[in-house]
């Protein structure tokens, strides 16, 4: 009961703060419009110049707005649904809740460390901290010792785990394709850095999220207890994050930027992640139930 109360309160606060942050990002306006600046590295960068993201570049600000729409109209409702489901002592509900909280945790980690400073700084900070503690509590509420017994013997752990491994390697190679060539030709700094401090997304992906995807997939294929814990959570997180990434690509396309082949690959990965999430949840038995 203590778990339910604390996670319910934390999740409710996340929903309120996320609605404020995402609404502000999606609907704020005002500003000088686009203009050019010279970065400290001597590169010319076109700045978005409107709304809360007015100091972001024209390549990045529309992506943030697109993700705000996904947060507002997909992630927040899913957080409410998964919370209500988890409160009924549903193991599936707790997995869905953990994966959704993982999305908020990673999203506002990125917003906090990459977004140019704005009036939402303290809200981003609160969302990061509250999402972290709610996420950890939800993970710890799942009984690891008997978790493998809740999965059907026919659960396709090989291809489900294999996809997580493939996802980590494919995206990792894509990001290395951004980072490595400038190191080889002596220019060192990729053009994607623009006027930011560093490659935040690529760094956190390569250092944390992609290795986690690889490990979760490998342990799931090996039918290890932590694999049964991490893989479902990662699949749900990946489903929401890839939906946000799809929205970002569409936003870039609407601005006339080249989005091939990403407009084909990313939605495909999103669909696979969603199908995998549904398949995993369907193969989990709830307390008091046994598999046929």
UniProtKB/TrEMBL annotation:
Annotated keywords: Membrane, Signal, Transmembrane, Transmembrane helix
Stretch forming the signal peptide: 1-28
Membrane-crossing residue ranges in chain numbering: 69-86, 95-113, 119-140, 160-180, 200-221, 233-253, 259-281
Official protein name in the record: Uncharacterized protein
Biological classification of the source: Bacteria, Pseudomonadati, Balneolota, Balneolia, Balneolales
